[in-house]
Amino acid sequence: MTTNALPAAKPANPNFSSGPCAKRPGWTLEALSGAPLGRSHRAKVGKAKLKRAIDLTREVLEIPADYRIGIVPASDTGAVEMALWSLLGARPVDMLAWESFGEGWVTDVVKQLRLKDARVLKAGYGELPDLAQVNFDHDVVFTWNGTTSGVRVANGDFIPADRQGLTICDATSAAFAQELDWAKLDVVTFSWQKVLGGEAAHGMLILSPRAVERLQSYVPAWPLPKIFRLTSGGKLIEGIFQGETINTPSMLCVEDYIDALEWAQSLGGLKGLVGRSNANFKVLADWVEATGWVDFLARDPANRSNTSVCLVVADPEVKALPAEAQEAFAKALAAALEKAGVAYDIGAYRDAPAGLRIWAGATVEAADLQALTPWLDWAYAEAKAGLKRAA
Fold first, then answer.
1. Same-domain pairing of 240 and 385
2. Are 138 and 233 members of one domain?
3. Which residues constitute the domain of residue 176?
4. What Rg, from alpha-carbon coordinates, does the chain have?
5. Euclidean distance between the first and final Cα of the chain, in Å?
6. Which of the four pLDDT bands, split at 50, 70 and 90, describes residue 200?
């Protein structure tokens, strides 16, 4: 039952943004004291730090030894763009989209690269496309976890082991919180500022041997900017995957990423991170099940994200309002929570249906989510009272 009385306790950390996400528990600026500031990233110390970031990434994510891991510019967006511009065009491509970032990759391929043999399989927010319709003789581009819809693929079972095309997977809000099926993935990208709460501007590009073979045997019909080039003279630029970055990285950000990876190791690696994310999601799922006014945007429980948890107002009175009024109601919820200092940046993504988006990745504490749920009910009661006053 909702009440206008203020809940007794606030979350110790009110940061529930879906990116940049909350820093790891116990993080302070002292964690970055080992950063080689003022030194060249090409110096021995800089290269060593970058190589350690790559090695820890492999260890924590349990990436196969024959997959290359590179640190690249421009966050996850840069990593995906490098893959699209460098690899596509050799085969027809199936583009899967069920939220805004997937839609963005469709735009790149259809309107920028202008590939004539691109097939687009779309689903609305809250749903997945029919994965049985994907043609894996084609290259396939998809997001593992829809950050703005809260919809993910449950696993990699829909991808055949004997596929002919490459699978290019944007995993930015899935990596470190969900089990990625590496044998089914040829290109995987993510950024540091999601599940590990790192700082922005750097992306990770992970390539299978099949993706490397494509790079070395296929030359795109379009020119590639320097920042996208992964080969030279028909050979992979191996230095990129050993810590020799294409452009100048922030060594402060690198230190922060290493700190987050070492924290992940202290939890038991990937298993510990996934466990924390699942436990966080359960707090919200239990609350949703017991609460009549709210529901998940993702309709199928098997496909609900355990990181970017997207919620909609299920109250019939609110759902009957015009779309603009529903959006205003959801914004009032988020604004009330921010004003109270209990939850920052949890409004739905601008292109998504009106609602809330609460990050539940591994750096968030379950106790903070437990403390948040009474405040969500309080904010709902406040917004409903506002509706009645306006009537």
1. no
2. yes
3. 29-266
4. 22
5. 23
6. confident
